[in-house]
Design brief:
Blueprint: E1 2-6, E2 9-12, E3 17-24, E4 30-38, E5 45-51, E6 57-59, E7 67-72, E8 77-82, E9 91-101, E10 104-109, E11 113-118
Parallel strand pairs: 2-11
Antiparallel strand pairs: 1-3, 3-8, 4-5, 4-9, 5-6, 7-8, 9-10, 9-11
């Protein structure tokens, strides 16, 4: 599965951005998709996820009520709507896809998109 993100940029505190992630390849094998972010010098942190079956979503506490993850299965596209952005949301955001293919687990990553929130 290949993932390509778009939609990052510079926004002021309190503003909004929507990230998109286009998936291609064996998308039928995806079980869970998500968005992770990485601060400089830190490990990546999963901030939101959505299951392919049932659409169950999960969020890290720091983004609950502000971020919404969604998926358009017809377009094989994942979204992250980010509202009420804070400077601490500044990071590189990565799209992820987890699944099983030919009996083996995989996790695919996108190339990342920078989100910068100015104070």
């Amino acid at each position: 599965v290949q993932l390509v993100e778009s939609g990052g940029g510079l926004v002021q505190t309190g503003g909004s951005l929507r990230l998109s992630c286009a998936a291609s390849g064996s998308t039928f094998s995806i079980n869970v998709m998500g968005w992770s972010r990485q601060y400089p010098g830190k490990e990546r942190e999963l901030v939101a996820s959505i299951r392919s079956t049932g659409g169950t979503t999960d969020y890290v506490d720091s983004v609950k009520g502000r971020f919404t993850i969604s998926r358009d299965n017809a377009k094989n596209t994942l979204y992250l709507q980010m509202n009420s952005l804070k400077p601490e949301d500044t990071a590189v955001y990565y799209c992820t896809a987890d699944g099983y293919y030919l009996g083996s687990h995989y996790r695919s990553w996108g190339q990342g998109t920078q989100v910068t929130v100015s104070s």
